[in-house]
Amino acid sequence: MGPLAHRKLSALSTSLNATRLMGFSLGTTRVIISSDPHTANEILYGQSFSDRPIKISAKVLLFERAIGFAPSGEYWRSLRRMAATHMFSPRRIACLGGVRGRVVEEMVVGVWREMEEKGVVELREILQMGSLSSVVESVFGKCLPSEREELRLMVKEGYELIGRFNWEDYFPLGFLDFYGVKRKCHKLATRVKILVAQIIRERRNEGELEGRNDFLSVLLSLPEEERLCDSDMVAVLWEMIFRGTDTVAFLLEWIMARIVLHPDIQAKAQQELDACIGVHRQVEDSDIPKLAYLQAIVKEVLRMHPPGPLLSWARLAVHDVHVDKYFIPAGTTAMVNMWAITHDASIWKEPWVFRPERFIEENVSVMGSDLRLAPFGAGRRVCPGKALGLTTVHLWLARFLHQYTWCTARSVDLSERLHLSLEMKKPLACKVFQRFDVNKLVCDPCFHRDSNPSGGSKNCK
Ligand code: HEM
């Protein structure tokens, strides 16, 4: 189906009048796709679709022993409980506020450095590095720069491999490995095991786990009967790094693309920031609930550019079931085309228009209770990282907009590429202008004009 599978499937289901449910076969795999909130609700909340079909690449890359692909039995439940308590609880998310703040500070400085040196800012790499630093610190605490770089390379390669179509997933003949995906996954899994096991060993040798806040230290200090064996711990820690890095970075890149494309919306968000925070201090997590318009922008981007347009990883029917009166046999793969739902004109007024105001007029939750907009999925396998992801995105966006005015550096290309997440096909390039004298944190409109290092602020008008 390629890099625009969500669009092709959407067009197909519309042309066949099968938005509620469309079925087809891919090799030996039976697939159903819902592009409708009602049947999506039945699939995502139904007890029958509680497993995931596991791709060979995901299996070899250890994810079968992590939350995302573990079958929905006792082991999976215990992992979700553990993650909910020690990685994603509101208290843990609040504790990580310092890390989020420090990382965004580094990014803000990095953005300005790039602007001064090159006259243009390519955001993607800055966001990916920031996202990686933030998630690595919450999972491992401090780690060496060389370890972080190795993690970055491993996440990148893992994304490439999992995103790739592999014939063997659909035509199970053991000897096939057309693109060498299996071989490459085995090599990558070996690197992951070596590196993560080494980090675990180092932490054990340091001894002192008390008072440490990172997920690894918490896992190591669990009572004997709850503790994971080392190989399962490697899988769970690796999954957190893998899932937590690019989802946040890609979403923020889409948001910033919209910000530079719509200067009026940017100005409105900045007015809100100035009214709530003023110009004498930085934005903090505790300010976010007051920033209704900023939150509406994030929702509108999640609607127009959902990071998982097909909800990333599908569901598997564990027993026979009926969906919308159709009989679905056990073993069927079920997908929800969230992109089709969020672009359906019978659900959303002017779905192709970017208009955050729609979420001021109507409060729609993005957390999975309203299937018109469920970018984190819903039901038992809903994304456990949704609150952490959103908290990070809100704070970072608020800091970016508070500090700088953002403009286009070249035309913004909104073409998409669906890999594991929905990425911008062409990286975004912007220019930034200081809104304040950073040393004094006092608003000075003239400073804004004068601080354009490439001389000229035409794009900001
Ligand atoms: C913008 C940020 C994010 C988006 C849009 C997103 C989206 C998703 C989606 C669509 C699913 C599938 C849900 C379903 O089947 O119903 C999912 C699952 C998952 N996500 Fe996220 N995610 C984000 C951030 C994160 C973060 C930060 C982490 C961890 C650090 C994370 C960890 C996971 C895990 C472990 C699963 C598998 C859950 C299971 O199968 O039980 N996600 N995510």
Keywords:
three-stranded antiparallel sheet; about 450 residues; four-stranded mixed sheet; alpha+beta; heme; about 10% strand; iron; metal-binding; disordered C terminus; Cytochrome p450; binds protoporphyrin IX containing FE
Largest sheet: 4 strands, mixed
What is the level 1 CATH name?
Answer: Mainly Alpha
CATH fourth-tier homologous superfamily: Cytochrome P450
Low-pLDDT runs of 5+ residues are 442-461
Compute the average pLDDT.
Answer: 90
Helix content: 40-55%
Would you give the CATH topology?
Answer: Cytochrome p450
Ions and ligands: protoporphyrin IX containing FE
Tally of distinct domains: 1
Return the CATH architecture: Orthogonal Bundle
Which percent range describes the beta-strand content? 5-15%
Major sheet strand order: 1-2-7-4
Rg to the nearest angstrom?
23 Å
Q: Report the strand count.
A: 13
The run of helices and strands is: HEEHHHHHEHHHHHHHEEEEHHHEEEEEEH
Report the end-to-end length measured between terminal Cα atoms.
Answer: 41 Å
How many helices in DSSP terms? 17
Gross geometry: globular
Class based on secondary structure composition and strand pairing = alpha+beta
Describe this structure in words.
By secondary structure, the protein is of the alpha+beta class. It has one domain: Cytochrome p450 (Orthogonal Bundle). The protein has helices at residues 5-15, 37-45, 56-60, 74-86, 90-95, 97-118, 123-140, 145-163, 181-206, 215-220, 230-261, 263-277, 292-304, 338-342, 358-361, 386-403, 445-450; strands at residues 22-26, 29-34, 121-122, 315-316, 321-323, 326-328, 333-336, 404-408, 416-418, 422-424, 429-434, 436-437, 442-443. It has a four-stranded mixed beta sheet with strand order 1-2-7-4. Strand 5 and strand 6 (326-328) form a beta hairpin. The structure holds protoporphyrin IX containing FE.
